[in-house]
């Protein structure tokens, strides 16, 4: 490793993938353009989110900073929380870790299978100001949207939930019958969402079984979105479409979501994958084609 290289780990949760930098002992500061260059799947390393692990100001195991592929910083990422929880638990050789985020403190728990991690994602926020929405809606189980170019009436009344980030969930009969790639960007930027929103299509497929696909704010279609799965579980239970313990199956695989009765917290359990270790040449970041390499010995 040369002086200007920084190590990274490539991980994913159900195919929602991350480049993770450890900035606990070195400073990693990147511009929006540099983040977008690293995230580009053709000319960079490629990721849905970039994660920077920092020292926790509150003194817990670590602080997790999250960036979408467009370079925007966001407060929550469920799949990354499981991945970083796994890294921290392996590092400390313990069965739990506490992660500070801009959305609060999150706890990760080992399950006995090193790749499978449970995370306490905290309580969902359900008031219109907390989503946030631009205008008052008393009942966030279904809000009426005015959307010109989208013709299907079913796509006008999503449930909205904040899981540390804003989500709109449209319950439909068949998630394949709607072109999420076409209307995802319109809904993400709808004026009712002043901070934009992650857009989910959800289909009830059985008792406590949901299929979903997600257009992520700042990214686009992803293989999975952990906070969207949590928000979908909460919304389905609030609408009495399911109970409080569901399996949400995304294109990348299933997540077990339980909205606990005892304290209102959302528990999420699912797989993580450590893809490879690598090193990034910091001197090439502004060329638009960052140079990086895999570390052979790290491959898992
Ligand atoms: N993939 C994530 C969510 C990442 C942030 C999201 N795109 C946003 O802008 O809020 C997850 O697994 O939760």
From TrEMBL:
Record-linked PANTHER family: DIAMINOPIMELATE EPIMERASE (PTHR31689:SF0), DIAMINOPIMELATE EPIMERASE, CHLOROPLASTIC (PTHR31689)
Q: Which InterPro entries match?
A: DAP_epimerase_AS, DAP_epimerase_DapF
Which organism was this protein described from? Breoghania corrubedonensis
Protein residues bound to substrate: 16, 49, 68, 78-79, 165, 198, 216-217, 226-227
Give the reactions, separated by semicolons, that this protein catalyses: (2S,6S)-2,6-diaminopimelate = meso-2,6-diaminopimelate
Question: A cellular component term (GO) from this record?
Answer: cytosol
Q: Where is the active site?
A: 77, 225
Pfam short name (any one): DAP_epimerase
What name goes with this protein? Diaminopimelate epimerase
Tagged with keyword Cytoplasm: yes
Write the lineage as a comma-separated list.
Bacteria, Pseudomonadati, Pseudomonadota, Alphaproteobacteria, Hyphomicrobiales
Ordered alphabetically, the record's keywords are: Amino-acid biosynthesis, Cytoplasm, Isomerase, Lysine biosynthesis
Cytoplasm among keywords: yes
Enzyme class, one word? isomerase
Could you tell me the EC number(s) of this protein?
Answer: 5.1.1.7
- What's the name of its gene? dapF
Provide one Gene Ontology biological process annotation. lysine biosynthetic process via diaminopimelate
What Gene3D superfamilies does this protein map onto? Diaminopimelate Epimerase, Chain A, domain 1
In alphabetical order, the GO MF annotations are:
diaminopimelate epimerase activity
Q: In which pathway does it act?
A: Amino-acid biosynthesis; L-lysine biosynthesis via DAP pathway; DL-2,6-diaminopimelate from LL-2,6-diaminopimelate: step 1/1
């Amino acid at each position: 490793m040369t002086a200007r290289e920084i190590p990274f780990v490539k991980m994913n949760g159900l195919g929602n993938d991350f480049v993770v930098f450890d900035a606990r002992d070195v400073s990693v500061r990147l511009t929006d353009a540099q983040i977008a260059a690293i995230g580009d799947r053709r000319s960079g390393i490629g990721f849905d989110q970039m994660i920077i692990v920092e020292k926790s100001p509150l003194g817990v195991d670590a602080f997790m900073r999250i960036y979408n592929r467009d370079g925007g910083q966001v407060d929550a990422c469920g799949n990354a929380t499981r991945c970083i929880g796994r890294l921290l638990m392996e590092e400390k050789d313990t069965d739990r870790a506490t992660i500070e985020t801009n959305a609060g403190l999150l706890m990760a728990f080992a399950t006995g299978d090193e790749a499978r991690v449970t995370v306490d994602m905290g309580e969902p926020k359900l008031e219109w100001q907390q989503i946030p929405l631009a205008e008052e809606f008393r009942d966030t189980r279904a809000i009426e949207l005015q959307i010109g170019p989208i013709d299907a009436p079913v796509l006008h009344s999503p449930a909205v939930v904040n899981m540390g980030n804003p989500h709109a969930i449209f319950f439909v009969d068949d998630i394949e019958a709607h072109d999420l790639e076409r209307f995802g960007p319109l809904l993400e930027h709808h004026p009712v969402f002043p901070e934009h929103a992650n857009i989910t299509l959800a289909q009830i497929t059985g008792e406590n079984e949901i299929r979903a696909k997600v257009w992520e704010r700042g990214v686009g279609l992803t293989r999975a979105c952990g906070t969207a799965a949590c928000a979908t579980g909460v919304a389905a239970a609030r609408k009495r479409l399911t109970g409080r313990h569901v399996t949400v199956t995304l294109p990348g695989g299933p997540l077990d979501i339980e909205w606990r009765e005892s304290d209102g917290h959302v528990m999420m359990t699912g797989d993580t994958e450590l893809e490879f270790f690598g090193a990034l040449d910091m001197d090439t970041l502004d060329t638009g084609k960052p140079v990086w390499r895999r570390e052979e010995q790290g491959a898992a």
